[in-house]
Amino acid sequence: MLIDAHVHVAFNNLYNKKLWEAASIDKKIKYIKEILRRYKKYKISIVRDGGDGLEVSKLAREIAETEGMIYKSPIYAIYKQGHYGAFLGKSIVDVNSFKKEFQILLNNRLDHLKIVMTGMVSFKKYGEVGETAFSIDELKYMVETAKYHNIPVMIHANGEEGVKRAIEAGVDTIEHGYLISEAELYHMAEKSIIWIPTLAPLGNILASDDMRFQKERDVIYRVYDGQIKNIEKAMKIGTKIALGSDAGAYKVGHGSGLLDEIKHFERTGLSRQKIEEMCFENGAKALKL
């Protein structure tokens, strides 16, 4: 059994925001069922969503039950106003606005709290990941609030500073984690934080010889290769790693994306059997199953 620990059901080739908002509930259910059945086709019956601004993952969680699947939803992600993350959820400006949003999330039975800490990795300039959005005090407050309610925390973070703060705050999983040092890998291992490196978004662009990013290929390859090397180091250190495809990202399909992720992981020298075991065992821990 395989677990995809990081997807975005709202982003796909079936509909866009305009079509979704105009669709009837029956049409929305049809859309989601088609996507969920793509996962089942590849024997993936357990999925964790990283959130969206349309709350599609909330509906997907309900429909997944009828498909015999386990689907974990944050309802929507939390990001800081003026920073990256608008398409993933709702913004907050301070602790007080977080309290209001978190209560709404609790009312909607979130499975995990998703926090957007940094931007995406730049394809144009090596090393850029955008600003680190939340201070350590803000992040600690959000993490401690979630844990008081027994809610795990997944955090989108790239770069050393953003990941350091996430580790210090005691999050449960770090998503992406590109452009980090060996020190962060050690600290994740020490705190039993699970890392989900999401190789497929960059790896699939490189594998496809995509014309859209021809000028950026050198930077993309450098970031991707660094991530492969960090995974190799993490395995030696004992950092727990789960697999998440980031399905819904450019060139990462739902269902097929996890198989792509496994292929990229094979570049580390791990056997397919070992990767699939890690995918299930650490994926189950990441989802608190």
Task: Describe what this molecule looks like in 3D.
By secondary structure, the protein is α/β, with parallel strands linked by helices. The protein is built from 11 helices and 9 strands. Strands 6-7-8-9 form a 4-stranded parallel beta sheet, with helices on both faces. The protein has a 3-stranded parallel beta sheet with strand order 1-2-3. A two-stranded parallel ribbon has the order 4-5. α2 crosses α3, α7 crosses α9 (217-237) and α8 (200-208) packs across α9.
Question: Features of this protein?
Answer:
single chain; TIM Barrel; 11 helices; 47% helix; hydrolase activity; hydrolase; Amidohydrolase family protein; Amidohydro-rel
Structural category is alpha/beta
Average predicted confidence as pLDDT: 97
Largest sheet: 4 strands, parallel
Q: Which word captures the global form? A: globular
Indicate the CATH topology. Answer: TIM Barrel
- Poorly predicted spans: none
Overall tally of structural domains: 1
Keywords: Hydrolase
Protein name: Amidohydrolase family protein
Organism: Anaerovirgula multivorans
Pfam family, one: Amidohydro_1
